[in-house]
Amino acid sequence: MSEQDNKEMPLMGHLQEFRIRLIISLVVVAITSSVAYNWVEEIIAMISAPAGKLYFMNPAEVFFSYLEIAVFTGVVVSLPVIIWELWCFVAPAFTRHEKRLALALVPACVVLFYTGLIFSYFLVLPAAVRFFMGFATETLQPMFSLEAYLSFFISFVLPFGFAFELPLVLFLLMRVGIVSPAFLRRKRKIFIVLAFIFAAVISPTADIFTQTMIAVPMIVLYQASLILMRFVKPKEEQTGA
């Protein structure tokens, strides 16, 4: 075997392992999506509760909407497995200390994402739907189509899942020395502006209400992260947040 083949083998081994991890994740998503499809009517009833009755505008809309919500549910339920498979793929590149840290952060990543989804569904989505339905008049009555509402729902709740990862992102940046609690405290006003810019970019609608409902939790999480960092940094760096 030539020297070039010896150099290529590790890369081929990594690609093969990535392929196996990807197949496992896709199989799990397929299984959970299939299970979710059997309960799709109940899932849609739960999702559409804030809006009430939904309508479909063409014969194929129901079928494809069912597939969309089944796959979405499958991916959300399979998230721990997907992240675990990703971790198993990248773990050999970490040191023993980094592995111990990551094993604590990976579950936190999943929990924060689910917390964001739950927060948006129970607290923000009903308020947002009531806000938008408040524009109804005698001549303008709301009539949500199934496809449009489900697309709105998915694009509405997912940003909260990602936004709630903020404490974890800040913690990792601090651990690798990119930022410090003192630096983050000085940049608090800048972050508030960036939070609203981020909310404007990922918000499914252009209204200030939805953008505010995304930005405010991020600002609260930012401040909470500063407080928690007191217990991570040495005492000499633990000035008031």
UniProtKB/TrEMBL annotation:
TM segment ranges: 20-40, 63-89, 101-129, 149-178, 190-206, 212-232
Q: Which domain of life is it from?
A: Bacteria
InterPro entries given for it?
TatC
Alphabetical keyword list: Cell membrane, Membrane, Protein transport, Translocation, Transmembrane, Transmembrane helix, Transport
Q: Where in the cell is it found?
A: Cell membrane; Membrane
Q: How does this chain sit within the bilayer? A: Multi-pass membrane protein
Binding partners and assembly: Forms a complex with TatA.
Q: Report the sequence similarity comment from the record.
A: Belongs to the TatC family.
Functionally, this protein is described as follows: Part of the twin-arginine translocation (Tat) system that transports large folded proteins containing a characteristic twin-arginine motif in their signal peptide across membranes.
Task: Give the protein name, as stated in the record.
Answer: Sec-independent protein translocase protein TatC
Task: Identify the species of origin.
Answer: Megasphaera hominis
